[in-house]
Structure prediction request, 199 residues.
Amino acid sequence: MNEENCGRFFNKRINRGWIHVCPDYSTAINCPVCRLFGASGKESNFPSRLIVRDAFLAKDWEDRWRAGEEITEAKIEVGIDRVTSQANPRTNERVVAGAEFKFEIIYNVEDLKQWEDDIKNLLTAMALLEDSYLGGSGSRGYGKVKFSFETFEFRSADYYRTGEEKEKIAIPVGKKQVIDVLKDFDGLFSGVKEKLEAG
Ligand SMILES: [Zn+2]
Prediction:
């Protein structure tokens, strides 16, 4: 992170924690975090380049649920007072392990010099998330996720003007893991790069 642009990285206090937000448009556009996820600064805002759609249950899992299979479970936990040993049992409902959800992420290409870094940073963040957790209570087992990609699709500005199929590039990748997408990045996106560089 560029100290001159953003000062201390975690620079804004929200409730009990600190987050990072660049203070204005000109610093956000040069910040690999804010230009991807957006920033709500004091002076001006920087809109996110990413759109993350809602994730819905995958078709076969929805079918299993409609057929009567339980796809959530009640996990029983107990909190124990470290001094008195008093037990406080609690029950949390959570999705069963292995459940699959479909998701879609859209990235808006604004700067031809930044899109590759932005996408690589996003994929790297997703790879890190796989070894961390999504949501709360991850330190006691919740929120373990694994991403796999089916298709990448690039749509040029001309696609939106003309609707011509040739203005789209579809890159089907089967069920490719995040780390494998990063490994094959240059090969997978060479066609996109050529198209963008050709204008
Ligand atoms: Zn920033």
